[in-house]
Amino acid sequence: MDKKHIILPTILTFLGCSSCLLLYTHAVTSGHNTYFYLRQTIWVVISLAAFFAIRKIPHSRLEKYAPWIASVGIAILIAVLIGGTKINGMSGWFTFGKLSLQPSEICKPAFIIWNAWLLNMTHQAKQKTKFVFATLLSLILWMALIILEPDLGTGIVYFITFIGMHYVIGSSPKFILSILAIGIICAAIIIAIHPYAAKRIRGFFADKESTQQTINWQTQQMQKCLHNGGWFGMPQDNNSQNTPLPYETNDSLFAFAAEHMGFFGVVPLVLLPLLWLIFC
Asked: Among 28, 44, 184, 275, whose CB has the most other CB atoms within 10 angstroms?
């Protein structure tokens, strides 16, 4: 068996179990119930089962159905713009009772499969120009649907994924740099359109005291966690208290881990995804 077929599942399993352990630790130290820990455990089990099932699908079958997979993904992103639930100023969620789903996250595999199909068609074509334009138009379509929510963070992830795929297949540096330049220009326009994004950027570089209780509060609290954690983590005694964090069970979970485990405790959580990329 190829080494990557062993290492990749091992890395994913370790990262999934680590997230469950962190959520359980959070529940114990903060006095909250174990709801998020149990929910994460269920999703990790489902995700790993799906991973092992999907990896058995032949690439030829994914290639055959790539346009259909992409069409479904785009249709879902359009649907959430029309009938999605607005949460934290973003119309990017479907809610079913207590269950909420973010389509832009679910559609990431469709985006990757579609772009892999386009890149393969470009590689095989004698006249590559039309496929290059098709690739760019496709990127614009996917990005536009996500930015309209607006979900700027996920849009950046899609864009970096697109650049990464072109880098892996050996696209010319001139092409990649051109796409990066266009992306920077578009980002500047988007920031100008959405004042909240501009405030977040200014707040990141602003004086800490002046933004402590304003738009940059989340960043400041995360920095406190990193500082408190030090090299080996904050001592656990009766006097120790968790630094208040927004979204402790998702966006700020890494900061919580850094405060309790320290620099050396969270380094593996950073290095393992990089190792994953190397073996991919």
From this structure: 44
